[in-house]
UniProtKB/TrEMBL annotation:
Residues 107-121 have a biased composition (Basic and acidic residues). This is SWI5-dependent HO expression protein 3. It comes from [Torrubiella] hemipterigena. Residues 75-86 have a biased composition (Low complexity). Residues 173-281, 328-365 form a coiled coil. Residues 71-130 are annotated as: Disordered. It comes from the Eukaryota. Keywords: Coiled coil.
Length: 409
């Protein structure tokens, strides 16, 4: 049985199955996102060996020129999918190395067919697989454990070809490992930059939110102050109107009092004159009565009844006049009160009409802004959905490039 002296399996981040499972997860710029790398083909390794300074192969012609499998330090190798992919890569390398047995010049003259890396096939535009979103699985163990594992794996090389650091294959492996470490360092740097950008954006967002809160508080305070000022102005107007009404009432009362005093004096004078006239008339009538009574004693009772009736009618007319005066005063006060109420209602009606017109204009403006923002939001969402669909189609095509492109590795 030929010995697999140069068979070595390179650690990769994830195989094709893991790449498919990762792409099905709805995650954007997540720290746990893994970018799958394609396995290195045998032709690519042979091309690197052909360009090395040492052209004489160290492998016998009768043995298979495969790479020996070495345990990976990546945490993703512990999964069943990674183990299955490792076995697939090892079997592929073994089957490919059988056809590569021959002289060293045959390996040098072969046509190089290195596969393109994923960074060459990705679009230049920003997407979810850009440099800022690349994530790798770091080793979970301690550095001492990794060093011991590396020493143990280094001791597993065949004694006929020496350690991994000797020979062309060792140089290739060391170069690949150094490139992998450099890529990991770059990824770590980009991750730190992304974290710094996130922290800066968060600080700016907090500052904007604080400023918005302060602005809303000041705006609310201004609205409250404006409302209170309007209320005070309305109270001042109402009190001013009430004061004017009271002044008018007091002036009217003074005028009425002056009029009634004049009327009282006039009535007193007239009453005195009438009393004098009545006294004179009574004296005259008494004389006549005495003269007549001597002649018509029988008509005395009738005259008394007539006098009593006239006195009652006079008292009744006087009482009705007093009641009419009270009613006139009551109606005058009621008219003044109704006049002030009508003025107040007219003022409130004008104020309500003005407020309703302002409210209507405000509602129309807000409805116009809402419609405009809705159309802009709908257009933006349509554009984002189209970009997401295009990116998803490109990703599917890139993942199925082996099935879509003939001869792709």
């Amino acid at each position: 049985m030929p010995r697999n002296r140069l068979q070595k399996q390179f650690p990769i981040l994830a195989d094709k199955a893991q790449a498919v499972s990762v792409t099905t997860r709805p995650q954007l710029l997540d720290d746990s996102f893994l970018t799958p790398l394609t396995p290195v083909s045998t032709a690519f390794i042979n091309s690197m060996q052909a360009h090395s300074p040492q052209s004489t192969p160290k492998v016998a012609l009768g043995r298979t020129a495969t790479i020996r499998s070495v345990r990976s330090f990546d945490a993703s190798d512990s999964s069943p999918d990674s183990k299955q992919s490792s076995g697939t890569i090892a079997s592929t390398n073994s089957s490919t190395s059988i056809g590569s047995v021959g002289p060293a010049t045959h390996n040098i003259d072969r046509t190089d067919s290195p596969t393109k890396s994923k960074s060459d096939t990705m679009p230049d535009g920003p997407n979810r697989w850009s440099a800022s979103s690349i994530r790798v699985i770091e080793p979970q163990g301690d550095s001492n454990v990794l060093t011991e594992a590396a020493d143990a794996d280094g001791n597993q090389w065949d004694s006929t070809i020496g350690k991994a650091g000797l020979g062309k294959t060792g140089r290739v492996i060391n170069r690949l490992v150094s490139e992998n470490d450099a890529l990991k360092r770059e990824i770590q740097i980009e991750r730190l930059r992304a974290e710094e950008a996130k922290q800066a954006a968060k600080l700016i967002e907090d500052k904007m939110e604080r400023m918005m809160n302060e602005y809303e508080g000041k705006l609310l305070e201004a609205n409250v102050t404006k409302t209170l000022l309007g209320r005070k102005e309305r109270q001042v107007d109402s009190l001013t109107a009430a004061l004017d009404a009271e002044k008018k009432k007091s002036q009217a009362a003074l005028e009425s009092e002056r009029t009634w005093l004049d009327e009282l004096n006039r009535v007193k004078k007239d009453s005195k004159i009438q009393v004098d006239k009545a006294t004179t008339q009574a004296t005259l009538m008494e004389g006549r009565y005495n003269a007549i009574s001597s002649h018509w004693r029988d008509q005395g009772d009738q005259v008394k009844r007539a006098m009593t009736k006239m006195r009652g009618e006079i008292a009744k007319i006087t009482e009705e006049r007093s009641g009419d005066d009270d009613k006139i005063r009551t109606l005058r006060d009621l008219c003044e009160q109704q006049d002030s109420n009508i003025k107040e209602l007219r003022r409130e009606k004008d104020e309500i009409s003005r407020l309703f017109s302002e409210y209507k204009e405000t509602q129309e403006k807000e409805l116009h802004h809402i419609k405009t923002n809705g159309r802009e939001t709908e257009a933006e969402q349509t554009r984002l959905l189209a970009d997401a669909k295009e990116t998803l189609d490109k990703l599917r095509w890139a993942l199925n490039v082996k099935n879509n492109v003939a001869g792709a590795q």
